């Protein structure tokens, strides 16, 4: 929920947007599906390529996918689902190359809003309206969520989640250091210092995947700006990146880095490696989207972890406004040779996704409605606490790269990643961003 990006040059990101627009093929007109019963009408042997971002067989998401795929293949012996499982950065890079060659897999992963728009504009994704209209599939999604994946009246992708950014913390390590949940960002800095003094790693992050640092930074900006909408104001030319709110966010974020919050060499740890440090009990805090709940509960720190909201920063912000993370989503290639069968499988997959996720204790932060008694089903106290946070949400902001164009977004990701390596003047960071924005919006 999603949601990671590998470092690519600004030029490549900008070139992709242009090349996608130039290579759009005419979408197939075969928009029929055979419903969500899991039964294919064809007797021919068919292979459907399913590109995904669930490569780790130890994770709940991989186990859910594997079960659904195996069940479908059992019911449809003439269909083979060929999995192309990659980590998020690898998948993003590979899809860009495939898109330039007009060889998008039958099913692939896209991210909402600005990130998926170039693929839609190029005509590479098939509209899914017909599929959503069958068996009430559209009504299984949370109200308004599909809007992030829709353009000009057509929905082009179905999300696996709808999450918010939170701080997970290890209760035992907090107790060892004699610290409590911070009420302000300034308290958070002091908690970091006290943890370090006790020889405890305060926080971890997988900043090799540069979206992770951006996700936390943008939550700080959400606070210093006094609420959501900073990037929209930049786009509307009401503000620039040299606005005091942005520069204060850079200062406060660097305060956290300079206090030694993150593990040494944070930029060499990818998402999984960073998260594994927390899951193995080697760090006290971990800021991430609520999609991480299931994996944390499936680790050695189960029962030891709590959760809290990012506090106010410099007295600014509302703690009930979050980084909103509409999940990564499944899209179908408009040029699929087996469009009907591909939609049939995806229909089956999404129809059954909520129940299988619930049964496997991984239904926190799903994009679809989930029925069931979480407590009676044996969900952890952490999961219940996270579900309670969803009840408090008063809006927030989307990630930077779900709002800005690819060139500006890549410059932002590089700029924030550099803050983990060396301290920089906030005004210079603002200038970097503003220059990238103006260059990519001529």
CATH class of the largest domain: Alpha Beta
Q: What are the secondary-structure elements, in order, as H or E?
A: HEHEHEHHEEEEHHEHHHHEHEEEHHEHH
> How big is the Rg?
22 Å
CATH superfamily of the largest domain: Periplasmic binding protein-like II
Structural class: alpha/beta
Query: How many strand segments?
Result: 13
Mean pLDDT: 90
Q: How many separate domains? A: 2
Word description of this protein:
This protein is an alpha/beta fold and 442 residues long. The protein folds into two domains: 10-161 and 328-371, Periplasmic binding protein-like II (D-Maltodextrin-Binding Protein, domain 2, 3-Layer(aba) Sandwich); 163-325 and 397-439, Periplasmic binding protein-like II (D-Maltodextrin-Binding Protein, domain 2, 3-Layer(aba) Sandwich), CATH 3.40.190.10. The protein contains 16 helices and 13 strands. The strands form four sheets. Strands 7, 8, 9, 10, 11 and 13 form a six-stranded mixed beta sheet that branches. The protein has a three-stranded antiparallel beta sheet with strand order 3-12-6.
A few lines on this structure:
This protein is of the alpha/beta class and about 450 residues long. It contains 16 helices and 13 strands. Strands 7, 8, 9, 10, 11 and 13 form a 6-stranded mixed sheet that branches. Strands 3-12-6 form a 3-stranded antiparallel sheet.
